[in-house]
Design goal:
Structural class: alpha/beta
Oligomer: single chain
Number of strands: 13
Strand content: 15-25%
Helix content: 25-40%
Order of helices and strands: HHHEHHEEHHEEEHEHEHEEHEEEH
Largest sheet: 8 strands, mixed
Number of helices: 12
Length: about 375
């Protein structure tokens, strides 16, 4: 049928993806290519456009994750966003001066040890007709994470170019949304920066004043993604969407609990959690809901500030989610910890080795299936 044919084209295009732009071609090795594909099923222009749009969006996210940090910088992510500008898509890029002027304490602290300047990205899609609602998609954009002064060991730094997987998913999804033109208002928000060790780096024991004016005691500078996300979440609340979801390669603890094929799903709203689960299932991506155990919230209490950026030794994925919950305001919110499925060590089916583009299809599906609470 038409739907199966559309899925076939999507899978075919995803399976053809290779990241070889940085390799010198070996003329002695024959390159395989597909010159034509015939499908014995009705596939109209609209379905073909959808399949090609989705595959292109996922492959964009894969490429951004695969690109090394000297290429995929915050400015690179901002350029991708600017490329989406149109009559229906407004793009706003806050530079370092504007980030400082607004008092985005999390982004400021994490980026202040890096020579590459941060970018705060907002892509706003508006439908031409009446909107069914509005949703904010928020991505962690750490284009490289050394751990800062809480320096990661060398082996742990090798793959930290993937720490912007959430941002890649959001930008990929916004690329598809700008083409598919759903009857939904959608905000794509990315906090992009590097976390580097330097004489100007933020320190363990610093107390930060965040964008929403809450104070955070820093215990570990390698728990930095949640600080950037916290400011992005508060920025999203100012837009007053009906709901929001953030994606982040946030914790190794989530990988310990779920492995590398499932993302962890957190929300304090059962209806929204169900929508997120349904969207992931419709997209063929794997999400597993984990508890927001308030019994662990005490481990985030600080004697010097409103909250600490690190919880106790157990339930690290949960305490990271509980930290983010402090910055969602009254908005319906969900959190996807995509640390595991963002990168694959081997090719499996239509998923290549390297960046997987995980999250793009779930976000597009979420927008298309969205229902107001």
């Amino acid at each position: 049928d038409t739907e199966a044919a559309c899925e076939l084209v999507l899978g075919f295009e995803l399976g053809l993806y290779r990241f070889d732009a940085l390799q010198t071609p070996n003329e002695d090795v024959p390159r395989h290519e597909v010159k034509s594909l015939s499908i014995a099923a009705p596939l109209g222009d609209q379905q073909r456009h959808r399949a090609l749009t989705l595959s292109s969006a996922v492959n964009l996210a894969r490429t951004l994750v695969n690109e090394p940090p000297n290429i995929c910088t915050p400015a690179r992510l901002a350029d991708v966003a600017m490329g989406l500008a149109s009559d229906q898509v407004e793009v706003t890029i806050l530079d370092k001066d504007e980030i400082y002027a607004r008092g985005m304490g999390g982004v400021i602290a994490v980026s202040q040890g890096a020579t590459i300047e941060p970018k705060f990205i907002h892509v706003h899609y508006r439908p031409q007709g009446e909107s069914r609602g509005s949703v904010a998609l928020i991505g962690k954009g750490l284009t490289f994470d050394s751990g800062g002064l809480s320096l990661k060991p060398p082996k742990s730094q090798e793959f930290m170019h993937i720490d912007m997987g959430g941002a890649a998913a959001v930008l990929g999804a916004m690329t598809a949304i700008s083409e598919l033109k759903p009857d939904m208002e959608v905000h794509g928000i990315v906090g992009a920066c590097e976390n580097m060790p330097d004489g100007n780096s933020f320190r363990p024991s610093d107390v930060l004043t965040m964008y929403n004016k809450k104070t955070v005691e820093v215990l570990n500078t390698d728990a930095e993604g949640r600080l950037v996300l916290a400011d992005a979440l508060h920025y999203a609340t100012e837009l007053k969407p009906d709901a929001m979801v953030n994606l982040a390669t946030l914790t190794g603890a989530c990988m310990v609990g779920l492995g590398n094929h499932y993302c962890g799903l957190f929300s304090d709203d059962d209806s929204w959690a169900n929508q997120l689960e349904s969207a992931a299932k419709a997209a063929g991506e794997k999400a597993w809901r984990l508890p927001l155990d308030e019994g662990l919230a005490d481990t985030l209490k600080s004697k010097r500030a409103d909250i600490k950026n690190l919880g106790g030794p157990y339930g690290g994925a949960i305490t990271a989610a509980l930290f983010l919950k402090n910055f969602k305001g009254e908005c319906t919110w969900g959190h996807l910890d995509i640390a595991g499925p963002t990168l694959s060590d081997k090719a499996v089916g239509s998923v290549p080795a390297g960046g997987t583009g995980f999250g793009v299809l779930t976000l597009v599906s979420l927008v298309e299936l969205f229902k107001k609470a």
